[in-house]
Amino acid sequence: MRRLLSNIEVLAVDEAAATYTVASNFVLYELAVQAGAQLRVWPGRVTHRLRRVDGELRMSQKIVELVAADVPQWNMAFLI
Fold first, then answer.
1. How far apart are the C-alpha atoms of 73 and 60, rounded to whole Å?
2. Residue 4 — very low, low, confident or very high, per pLDDT cuts 50/70/90?
3. What's the confidence (pLDDT) of residue 79?
4. What residues make up the domain containing 42?
5. For residues 63 and 48, what is the distance between their CA atoms, to the nearest angstrom?
6. Strand, helix or coil at 75?
7. Is the overall model pTM greater than 0.90, yes or no?
8. Count of the separate structural domains present in the chain
9. Which helix or strand (DSSP H or E) is residue 4 part of?
10. What's the rounded Cα separation, in Å, for the pair 58 and 52?
11. Among 19, 27, 48, 50, which is most buried by a count of CB atoms within 10 Å?
12. HSE of 8 in the Cβ direction (CA atoms, 13 Å)?
């Protein structure tokens, strides 16, 4: 499995609450060996909400939006 990230951007910063919302585009390539070595391509956008806890950034939310979200998909357990 390989993943490419691009267009990383900061969408919102709340200094008072120490939260940040960032987003990026991705393309994930999966070689599904159990499906006869089928190459699957998963393009989409991911949004993360980060918060500062004890001086470190921690992820508090992750939203994945696939380009082909309106059609049936294979098992996507790898996105979790």
1. 26
2. very high
3. 56
4. 2-79
5. 7
6. coil
7. no
8. 1
9. strand 2-14
10. 6
11. 50
12. 5
Integer Cα distance of 34 and 78 in angstroms: 14
pLDDT higher than 90, residue 22: yes
DSSP state of 71: S
Residue 4 CA to residue 7 CA, distance in Å, equals 10
| Alpha-carbon radius of gyration of the chain | 15
| Contact status, residue 30 vs residue 1, Cβ threshold 8 Å | yes
Q: Do residues 43 and 64 make contact, with C-beta atoms less than 8 angstroms apart?
A: no
Q: How far apart are CA 34 and CA 46, in angstroms?
A: 26
Q: What is the CATH number of the domain that holds 21?
A: 3.10.450.50
